[in-house]
Amino acid sequence: MTDFEQWKALQIRRPGDVPPGTPLSWQADRASEHAMRVWDASLPADFPHPVERGTAQDSVAELALRESIRRDVENGRCTRLHIALELGATWAEVAAALDISPEDARALLRQWADGQHHLYVGDQERGKEKPLGFTPDQHAAVIALTERGDDEGRTAQ
What we know:
The protein contains six helices and no strands.
């Protein structure tokens, strides 16, 4: 059985039922399938075409999948913000892309960097061989990005 076939066979009732790393496109496709059945459940009993009517389980699966998608997107937000800045985007550009002010974008990145550093320190304290998160130097590099001017991007190298 392929990974996709295993994915299609999974019962999704909670966001945690979605395995880590599941592509967003797979999640969106399944959420859409459930949503279509839920929608079809509202059609009149004498609807002239064959439909697959949804159940409460379809509705719950759709909710869980949408929540999983929301979390995946949210978790990737700051990673992508960081990458954009590293690739030369300005604070004005990333703030516009997020529809927030440059100062709010800086605060978002600072909070994320602090969390990544906290994760690293905690893993180190627990004796993990390969701690996750940001080392002190990586943390400092991200914090330094927050001090660039709104229209200052990385210079081409």
